Amino acid sequence: MSRVLNFYPGPAALPIEALEEAQNELLDWQKTGMSVLEISHRSKEFDAVHNETIDLLKKIYGIPDNYSVLLLQGGATLQFAMIPMNLIGNGQTASYVVTGSFSKNAFKAAKTLKSIHLACSTEEDGKHFRIPKPEEINLAPGSVYCHLTSNNTIFGTQWKSFPEYGEVPLACDMSSDILSRRVDFKPFGLIYAGAQKNLGPAGVTVVIIRNDLVDSSQEGLPDILSYKVLVSKNSLFNTPSCFGIYMMNKVLKWVKKKGGLAFIEQQNEEKAKLLYDVIDENPEFYVSKVEKDSRSFMNVTFNLPSEDLLTKFIEDAKTENIIGVKGHRSAGGIRVSIYNSNNLENVRVVSQFMKRFVEKNG
Ligand SMILES: *Cc1c(COP(=O)(O)O)cnc(C)c1O
Question: What pTM, to 2 d.p., does this model score?
Fold first, then answer.
């Protein structure tokens, strides 16, 4: 068996321990004589994993008791629609901050459903290089929430602190940095994330929602789209992503064993520093327009002096077992995604490769 060093942006690397456990349990899970892929989602075995997963996330992430945790399907993208459907009533509005491709998609989806307000956009020639300053964000009066994207996966920017608007809660897409650092939940009314970057495989979407927002959410929606119904059914209104939840359970136990969120946060800072240091030492070679205080600790993006060098970088990386570093087509360049599962050693291999690459080609 040979495993690569996987820096794909999502779906992304999972802890080897979690994969090995799943492998060992695949034919006979918990002495049921079946795998988790084959058992009823109403069985007591699955129910236990489902509830334990929600519990683990609450404990590890420190989610306060006045929030509910949903494990849904449909990806973060379905939440782009469910949030306005559930939270914006007749005659109401919400504000959106656009800092990248996904936040733009969230804005566009909401716009087809409700009358919403663009509070700020950092777009420059179709790209985004920074997180806005608080004074650039203009909320519409009476906004029921302010939507933002904590980590911009494609452009490599990340909010380092969040604005607080008192009565106006934040609704935040944390798909690519959920559980990567400690979070003060106070300004947030709703946090959501597809699992496939930091939490598990694709197919599960986490929604963390403050209970008063569930209570005041809109009536008259189809049950499958209603937070009220989904919370009242503990996310088991219909068949959930059973295998996805089971894998997420293993990933969360791995986080706990490693030392929890404090360890993860510290390791993520060290990992990001390893790569940004090489970029800063070679600013003519590893070119980045991302503002320094906006740099993402999850997706490190940069460009090279020519297309030929870019191609060579990706090819040479591959010969060293480093894969998944080609940037998104809309951003170009290189993107190294260093989610929780990629440890310090893996990232050190990339930083050393980058140093050698500039020595040879710079
Ligand atoms: C990956 C990603 C998405 C897309 O999520 P799906 O689960 O594919 O719908 C949305 N937002 C952000 C910030 C992402 O990184």
Answer: 0.98
